Amino acid sequence: MQTQKKQASVDALFEAVAANEKKMRAELSKSGKLTARARLEALFDEQSFTEIGAFNSRTAGNPADSDRIVAGYGAVDGRLVFAFSQEFSQELGAFGEAAAKKICSLYELAVKKGSPIIAMLDSNGAKLEEDVSLFASYGKVIKKAAESSGVIPQIAVVCGVCSGALALFAGNCDFIIACENNSSMFLNSPAKIKSLNKAREDFSTAYDTAANGISAITCSNEDQAIFSAKKLLSLLPSNNEDGAPNYDQSDDVNRKTACFSSADTSIAFDAASVIADLADSGDVFELYSDFAPELKTGFITLGGQSCGFIANDPTVSGGKLTANACKKAARMVDFCNLFDITVINLINTEGFDAENEANGNLITPASELALAYSLCEAPVITLVVGKAYGSAFTALASKELGADVVFALPYAEISILSPETGVSFLWNDKFADVKDAISGRNELIAKWRQDNTSPVAAASCGLIDDIIRPEEARQRLISAVYMLNK
After folding, report:
1. Residue 116: which residues within 8 A CB-CB, separation 6 or more?
2. What is the pLDDT, as a whole number, of residue 305?
3. I want to staple 322 with a disulfide (CB 3.0 to 4.6 A). Which of 82, 141, 356, 415 is the partner?
4. Tens digit of pLDDT for each residue in 140-175?
């Protein structure tokens, strides 16, 4: 009889929890938001989620009320993943000591099992009743994220407000995904920032975080954000010892590349088209697309092997390396290095952006980019598809700086100076007998391009391993990926 009473009591508790969840879902759906549990259901494979600390931190001491945070583990496409989600409908997701303990416990399990962690953030801030002791709780959570950096992948999905110390936590994650409709990230009050700078009307919004390189992906709603998190996970290893994922795929590894159909070097190869043509089945997962668009980064698979890519986009400011482009590329190299993911460089740039340097500090981010490549122990493969002028070649494509294999297309232009600069500095005397200065200058530039930018010269002194046929680009890259990951 006593056992039956206990069972009935627990059953009633579960029914009350389910009823409360149903009520919260109805309320939140009006604002396009999901409950903490609904997010976790969308993330994990069906019926695979197991909650930890299920009845910790219940509000008002009532176990039937929902947590301000739900945490646990389960399978995502059959792979073990840990996750937590904040519950906005309970005290606006107020963060407190109990929530911090739950997150820290989750991190300890994730690191122990060598599995990724996903944080779904949606809180208006601190639980004010806890006063200054809350600083310790925030500090513990931030430190857990910092200690786990480079050990397991960490993805933060910003579903609502992510402010103050929780923004610091999110910034310590490897990637941030923002929801267009509700996300907001900031350290200081948006009202205060806007009062100080009228131009920052979009401050803290998903648009703002994307434009400033804070969030890697922007999605229209939480369902899409969770889908993107799952897609990103599929391209990452579970930890820093597993190595990049390798999948069976149907795309022919010997498929001819069509994107380099023109040998006219005056035509800039669109980076998006090049990457899609090289990737298995044209599947490209781009990151930070709204930040430094003159350079693209993200993930693709080549012959089934997950790879990170870094590609100049000559259709945007000539693909020049700006300070932000250097930061973006260095961030990608650093991440791939931590998790032993092959880096594919697709080089087509006129060099470092002089105008950008004239308006600020370019040396520091450029040096950080060079440092990232110099310290990278993950495989690095470079293909020069167009222009590679000056020290930009050294920073992005150099074997001496760490590239394992360097290829170039026949019409790649590799030169210590751009043709225009070379003619101005070194062939200025040739203008003496030229009647039509403009026509004469153009002829000299064309001659410099023909005589001094050929990849043959670079190959002859060991800078290039091979000059490859354009249609063989995919095949040769995959061959190098296989070789370096054997």
Report:
1. 81, 82, 110, 152, 153, 154, 155, 233, 236, 238, 239
2. 97
3. 356
4. 999 999 999 999 999 999 999 999 889 999 999 999
SS in 3 state form for 261-291? CCCCCCCCCCHHHHHHHHCHHHCCEEECCCC
Tell me the whole-structure pTM to 2 decimals: 0.90
**Token reading at 331:** 């961030």
The whole-angstrom separation of Cα 311 and Cα 159 is 30
The Cα 194–Cα 215 span in angstroms is 20
Q: What's the pLDDT at 98?
A: 83
Report how far apart, in Å, the C-alpha atoms of 86 and of each of 29, 76, 83, 124, 161 are.
16, 19, 10, 10, 10
Assess contact for 117 and 110: CB atoms under 8 A. yes
Bridge pairing between strands 305-312 and 466-467: unpaired
pLDDT at 59: 47
Q: Which portions of the chain are predicted below pLDDT 50? A: 58-60, 64, 66
Angle at 372 between CA 368 and CA 378, to 5 degrees: 175
What are the contacts of 105-110 at 24+ separation with CB within 8 A? 105/52, 105/53, 105/71, 106/52, 106/71, 106/72, 106/73, 106/82, 107/82, 107/144, 107/145, 107/148, 108/144, 109/52, 109/73, 109/82, 110/73, 110/82, 110/148, 110/152
Q: What does residue 150 show for φ and ψ, rounded to 5 degrees? A: 80, 0
